[in-house]
Amino acid sequence: MGASPCGGLASRIETKLSTDPTGEPHGSHYKLARKRVNQRRGAPSGSPPVTPNPDSPRGPRPGRSGDPGSRGFDWRDWFDPRRVGWLNLMLVFVPIGIALRVAGVGETWQFVAAGLAIIPLAGLMGESTEHLAHKLGPGIGGLMNATFGNAAELIIALFALFRGYDEVVKASITGSIIGNLLLVMGASLLAGGLKWPRLQFNRTAAGVGSTMMVLAAFGMLIPAIFYSLPEVLRVAREEGQDRRLFLEHELSVGVCIILMLTYVLYLVFSLKTHQNLFNPDAEEGSPDESLHGHGPGWSMSRAVGTLLVATSFVAIMSEILIGAVEHTSQAFGLSEVFVGVIIVAIVGNAAEHSTAILVALKNKMDLSVGIAIGSALQIALFVAPVLVFASYLREEPMDLLFTTLEVVAVLLAVFIARMVAEDGESNWLEGAMLLMIYAILAVAFFVLPGGEGGHPPGPGSAGEIGAVEAAPGDPGP
């Protein structure tokens, strides 16, 4: 049977549509369009097409091509310690701090040098722990990150604990919680929001973390309420102050056991049953790449060696730092509560703070918010109970009785963080508001009189004995 005229016409039309005047298959006009775009941007016509920068909402910026080697320097890179190298440069304060201690130079300078030295050492501890976690797999690796994520803060607090600085220890717990929920999250939202108009994150994961922080806040609130109950005051009056302290320590141990159990449940939830909520992009990474995305990962021996060396030097610097706390606070007129809430907390978390801001600049808000809330959870549910249990190795154990301002600060931080996390999105203005709230609390702790940093007046003090024993109608002393 002969070919149909209609069929031949259709064949010629199909052939015409499938080729262009140069004889190339249809679709090469996309290549021509890319060449014109490259020519308008100053690129040679034969150069490879310009690919959009995935880290920028508006495409590649001048001087920042897709090739990392030819990438220009941007002001945002100052937040990246691996780009600038300022963390490694700060390691020079390690020998400086040791030299100042050996030479017996002023304790204020020792405090400053030790504090600056702990920042890069904590960063090395965190990075080596992440590389070990990457090598050991998601199960054991996630457990390591959850356990050693705040190792630097724990080491500093242990040295303060066994030197008898209980108020500094409890203040550092408070400072780490409000620092992560207000300072870290606020700085991350501000930095990311200035680059990206809309910041989104998994509200389920953030909501779980912030809800668990409510439990941790209750763990701080209940001992403070219990200490002032009329029944407890009556026991103190009838049986003595020792009985009251015994009841307070019993309550603190019970609360710590519950907090630790809650932390175990949180680990099971985040690492096992709902791992996809907390690590949604785990499958996208290459096993041969560093977790930070800069070159190959470390070997097992390098990660272990770096962790051990960094931990050893953190212990040395912590001993110097805590040894100079009293002299430095007196020299500058600072209370122990302010030193613990602001200075010690920032020193121990500085490296982690920079990581949260860095990933926020890349619009990885799940990771950034997870760092802020997760670190606060580790402090409240793991580090605080460990410190209370460790205090039983000395003569007088530590309790969970915090000052009124500390309890109020934590409650406000948890409440505000819960409000930010509940809708799963944010912007730079909310970040700025979090920073303003942190600044207000910092001013309050700064002007707080030194005498307000300890326990409330107990029955052993003359003032409360008179108040408790005096009848309502008595004129008193």
UniProtKB/TrEMBL annotation:
Compositionally biased intervals (Pro residues) = 46-60
What's the protein's topology in the membrane? Multi-pass membrane protein
User: Which keywords fit this entry according to its UniProt record?
Assistant: Antiport, Calcium, Calcium transport, Ion transport, Membrane, Transmembrane, Transmembrane helix, Transport
The record's principal subcellular location, in a coarse class, is membrane
Q: Pfam families this protein is in?
A: Na_Ca_ex
Example of a GO MF term: calcium:proton antiporter activity
Region of interest (Disordered), residue spans = 1-72, 458-477
Q: Name one GO cellular component term.
A: endomembrane system
Q: Which residue stretches does the UniProt record annotate as biased composition, category Low complexity? A: 62-72
- Family classification: Belongs to the Ca(2+):cation antiporter (CaCA) (TC 2.A.19) family.
Instruction: Describe its function.
Output: Ca(+)/H(+) antiporter that extrudes calcium in exchange for external protons.
Q: What is this protein called?
A: Ca(2+)/H(+) antiporter
To which species is this protein native? Tautonia plasticadhaerens
